[in-house]
Specification:
The complex is a heterodimer. By secondary structure, chain A is mainly alpha-helical. Chain A is built from 11 helices and no strands. Chain B is α/β, with parallel strands linked by helices. Chain B is built from 9 helices and 12 strands. Classes of the chains: A mainly alpha, B alpha/beta.
Amino acid sequence: MDFLALYVTLKLALVTTIFLMVIAAPVAYALAYYRFAGKSFLEALIYLPMALPPTVIGFYLIIIMGPKGFIGKTWGMLTGGSLLFTFVGITIASIIYSIPFAVQPMKAAFSKLDRRLLESAYVLGLSKRKTFFRVIIPNSVSGIAAAAILVFLHSIGAFGVLLMVGGSIPGETKVASIAIYEAVEMMNYRAAGMIALSLIPISYAFLLLINKLNERNRI
Amino acid sequence: MSINVSFKKDLKYFDLDISFSCAKKNMVVMIGPSGGGKTTIVRMLAGLEKPKEGKVVFGNEVWFDSLRHINVPPQKRRLGYVFQDYTLFPHLNLYENATFAAVDKKEVDELFELFRIGHLKKRKPDMVSGGERQRCAICQALARHPRILLLDEPFSALDAITRRGLREELKTLKGKMSFPIIYVTHDIAEALYLADELLPVVEGKIDDQWLQRMITRDPSTEVALRAAREPRLTLVY
């Protein structure tokens, strides 16, 4: 069993989830509470990875993260290294690929919150920033948790984007889905089956958790 | 300190145009039919909505002046606002709600005793009755040491008995307060019971004829009897 691939998968899913929670919360807040020029365009752009084939996303990520691309060049100047075929590279790819799954549930949770609670906080003297942390976040825990779980699961399942951006370097970019693909390619069904089977309880447990959160929300 | 208010705002069905003032220790009761603009007036006073034109001066402090483009945000007006429906924070218990913006937590204990909810401190808002929630909302507003208290139909969602009890508690409390209180209701009996001054608001404007009509429509009503018993009442406009 390729424990290293499982380790990289879980590490990638965890890092992606942590980063996306921090990035997506203010984006979801802006989308839920503000009206601004180009809001629909921005929202559609954020949700675009959901509608595109992973290979298309992977292709454009290779372009911008490659040595001549904007992000790749900047990274090269700062660190002297390359983003492609590295764990950092697949983390960036995974974040971009999963961003809709973080923003959408969070935006829904923020939008659902009774606006009068925010007004009550303002009248009680809280700034918008403090209201975000003391009122919005604590009252959107279920939505935030659902977003985190969805991102985590989506990152575990990523394949095409990661293969294109990271290749298959054991311990660095070779995740479980790639390990399964390679094992099948080599007709090693036993190895593929072991990794595949190990992912099922993880994914199932997290989906159960989402259901429980949704049930709690409905009550 | 007293507050002087004048607002103009175009609403969906009528144009709001109103001016009034409220002296310290006084309770101005804004009375009128539902949908007449009372809540909008209170929201503009709190800074939650922006008037088209107007001015709000609290003591020497200008909170809003459309000509000078002054609009002090609600956070800086330091007022107490008890909303029509329950707006306690659902993730906090009653005590945490009341101390949310409290100046002195010890005072919250005293307020809880005064409003007889001391035994419910640890309960979440959804675990207590509507009356208890509104009592807590009043404690929350008072604990901030407000310079003016706004009560927007705070008891409208409660049953008649609870409503009457709270009305009496509020009247007792009023005597101890040194700041202006603006109370919104569409219940004439409640208005006559609580008010030092009445402000009849109909379709965004002051309409003293409306109040007279409501009282004289049925002279045998409790409302009319109370009106006759309350000669201290003055109309504020």
